[in-house]
């Protein structure tokens, strides 16, 4: 068996020792990832951080003390320190070693280790490095330190392989990262060993050079840009845990502190970027997430309905939604709304159809059976009905979207509610009927009620005025999705499908999007919609969205199946798949025409010198920008 190199640490073996006592030895990392990078190890062989048990907490605390002692001797401020362990299989040597680092990090392209794909569902991403404080807390609580599945297996755009490099990915020093601290090297480092075993710091640790200001590429003919602010951080900001984390804490690097009070663990598990937000988040953005699971559910005989509007999601001023379930044969009674209504999804792809009927202001009728993945749309004031067929024994379930955020499902104009409040003699006069003819109308609204399932091939009654010229339904399920490098998309609006007569929809456009694991919707950074709000509903998988609201305000939200998202007009955003399965969701816009601005395309079509002056991009990076609009970008 090959001997452990860390069990034979000595100056003769080539180690530059900076601290030593009876229990520990500290030496310089041979390939430092930071301004100062030191390894602290116990002389007793311990395989890795995964080997630590509850009784080892004192040992780990002592290792941290050694690290602080060394950095104290270098006058490194506490706010510029990072200490932690690599978690197997992403450790280089199977002997417990604590990385002690003084920021800033070196450029990530000069990373310490080459990158491999990882093992099983894991890749080098976030979950392979643990802060020393987190390690102490875990083992004190009796937990074995382990790897999280990395929720984004790919890399960020224009940083190929950077997110997988073996440099601890912390965002804790965003405002310090690009500032070279003044580290004064003492005459000798503090050591428990004779001075001869600890070389003078000046011969071991070199002082960093002052950071230089960003400059425009030398190949450009444009005037050089003058930097007035530091570079933005390139440290990854992955979610801090997955849905299986049993003890989520509001800690990201050195920021935050453990919870002391009670915690709703399931909610914290689902929202890592709210409890421990990325360091790129800043300021305030209104809540852009609402789970239907938190909506009050109205239960009826034959089905149920729950809604989202400004009462629970104030940011969504332009659109509201209803999630409705009908058992086979059940009817959502004849009704109409002040707003338009779009059915944007039958929830189950393989089950359930809904039969719809309507009559327009010219007396023309319409009937259609709408299957899984298809749409319907009713303009404001058009009376209509919904009834589940028995194509599936379970009936149907669907999402309705309305073009007014203040809409309430309970304020719908219902046939039975209306007639129960009209004097009986007026009803008789209107219909020229006897008193007995309307003697069994309900005394109050029915809303949802059971009935006999209609035949799927039913047709509308004969109408002397004819049928509506533009159908109220659209077979989106029969439209082939546009395949893209990172997923697929279907878009429906009044311009895309003119030939198929979807022009009846003048206030709603829709897109159905799939995003493969590791991919990002709409560029790698942001995109925005110049004239429309975006309402979204997540059907499968899990993802996250950062909403940029200008003036330094940005916030990240996590989404799972059943969640609603909302992005106001012109606010920059992206949708990223953070799971290990396909992310599938709907985008709904209160407009007749789908529009978006691609960041990638915008920069590609802007004069290169102008972009370079803003972002200090290289000519190679500028040349790689896409002049055509990407929709879903694959991960690397």
UniProtKB/TrEMBL annotation:
Gene3D superfamilies reported for this sequence: HIT-like, Jelly Rolls
Record key words, sorted: Hydrolase, Manganese, Metal-binding, Nucleotide-binding
UniProt entry tagged with the keyword Hydrolase: yes
Pfam families: Cupin_1, DcpS_C
Cofactor info, note text: Binds 2 manganese ions per subunit.
Binding positions (Mn(2+) 2): 529, 534, 573
Cofactor: Mn(2+)
GO terms, biological process: oxalate metabolic process
Ranges for region Disordered: 208-247
Motif Histidine triad motif positions after renumbering to this chain: 95-99
Single annotated GO MF: hydrolase activity
Active site annotation, chain numbering: 587
NCBIfam families from the UniProt entry: bicupin_oxalic
Protein's name in the database: Oxalate decarboxylase
Annotated organism of origin: Favolaschia claudopus
């Amino acid at each position: 068996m090959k001997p452990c190199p860390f069990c034979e640490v000595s100056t003769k073996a080539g180690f530059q020792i900076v601290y030593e006592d009876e229990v520990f030895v500290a030496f310089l990392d041979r390939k430092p990832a930071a301004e100062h990078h030191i390894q602290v190890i116990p002389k007793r062989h311990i395989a890795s951080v995964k080997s630590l048990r509850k009784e080892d907490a004192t040992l780990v605390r002592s290792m941290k003390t050694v690290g602080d002692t060394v950095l104290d001797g270098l006058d490194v401020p506490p706010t510029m320190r990072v200490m932690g362990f690599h978690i197997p299989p992403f450790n280089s040597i199977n002997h417990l070693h604590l990385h002690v680092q003084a920021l800033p990090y070196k450029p990530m392209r000069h990373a310490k280790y080459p990158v491999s794909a990882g093992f099983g569902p894991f890749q080098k991403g976030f979950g392979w490095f643990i802060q020393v404080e987190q390690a102490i807390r875990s083992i004190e609580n009796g937990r074995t330190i382990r790897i999280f599945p990395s929720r984004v297996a790919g890399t960020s755009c224009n940083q190929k392989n950077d997110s997988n490099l073996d440099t601890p990915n912390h965002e804790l020093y965003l405002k310090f990262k690009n500032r070279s601290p003044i580290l004064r090297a003492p005459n000798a480092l503090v050591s428990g060993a004779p001075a001869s075993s600890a070389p003078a710091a000046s011969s071991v640790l070199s002082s960093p050079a002052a950071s230089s200001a960003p400059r425009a590429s030398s190949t450009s003919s444009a005037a050089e840009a003058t930097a007035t602010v530091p570079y933005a951080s390139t440290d990854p900001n992955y979610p801090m845990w997955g849905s299986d984390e049993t003890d989520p804490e509001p800690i990201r690097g050195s920021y935050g502190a453990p919870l002391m009070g009670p915690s709703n663990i399931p909610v914290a598990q689902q929202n890592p970027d709210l409890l421990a937000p990325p360091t790129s988040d800043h300021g305030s953005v209104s809540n852009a997430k609402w789970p239907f699971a938190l909506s009050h559910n109205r239960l009826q005989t034959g089905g149920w309905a729950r809604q989202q509007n400004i009462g629970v999601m104030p940011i969504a001023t332009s659109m509201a939604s209803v999630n409705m379930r009908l058992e086979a044969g059940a009817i959502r009674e004849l009704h109409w709304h002040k707003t338009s209504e779009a059915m944007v999804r039958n929830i189950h792809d393989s089950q359930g159809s809904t039969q719809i009927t309507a009559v327009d202001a010219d007396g023309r009728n319409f009937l259609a059976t709408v299957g899984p993945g298809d749409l319907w749309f009713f303009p404001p004031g058009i009376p209509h009905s919904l009834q589940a067929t028995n194509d599936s024994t379970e009936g149907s379930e669907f999402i309705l979207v309305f073009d007014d955020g203040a809409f309430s499902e309970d304020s719908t104009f219902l046939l039975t509610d209306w007639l129960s409040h009209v004097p009986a003699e007026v009803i008789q006069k209107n219909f020229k009927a006897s008193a007995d003819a309307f003697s069994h109308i309900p005394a109050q609204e029915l809303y949802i009620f059971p009935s006999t399932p209609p035949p799927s091939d039913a047709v509308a009654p004969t109408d002397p005025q004819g049928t509506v010229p533009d159908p109220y339904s659209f077979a989106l399920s029969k439209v082939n999705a546009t395949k893209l490098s990172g997923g697929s998309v279907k878009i429906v609006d009044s311009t895309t499908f003119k030939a198929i007569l979807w022009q009846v929809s003048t206030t709603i456009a829709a897109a159905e999007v799939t995003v493969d694991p590791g991919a990002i919707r709409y560029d790698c950074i942001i995109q925005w919609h110049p004239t429309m709000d975006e309402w979204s509903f997540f059907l499968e998988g899990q993802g996250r969205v950062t909403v940029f609201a200008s003036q330094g305000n940005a916030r990240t939200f996590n989404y799972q199946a059943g969640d609603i998202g909302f992005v106001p007009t012109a606010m920059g955003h992206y949708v990223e798949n953070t799971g290990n399965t396909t992310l599938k969701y709907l985008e709904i816009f209160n407009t007749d025409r789908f529009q978006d601005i691609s960041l990638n395309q915008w920069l590609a079509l802007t004069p290169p010198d102008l972009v370079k002056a803003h972002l200090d991009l290289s000519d190679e990076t500028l040349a790689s920008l896409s002049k055509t609009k990407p929709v879903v970008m694959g991960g690397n």
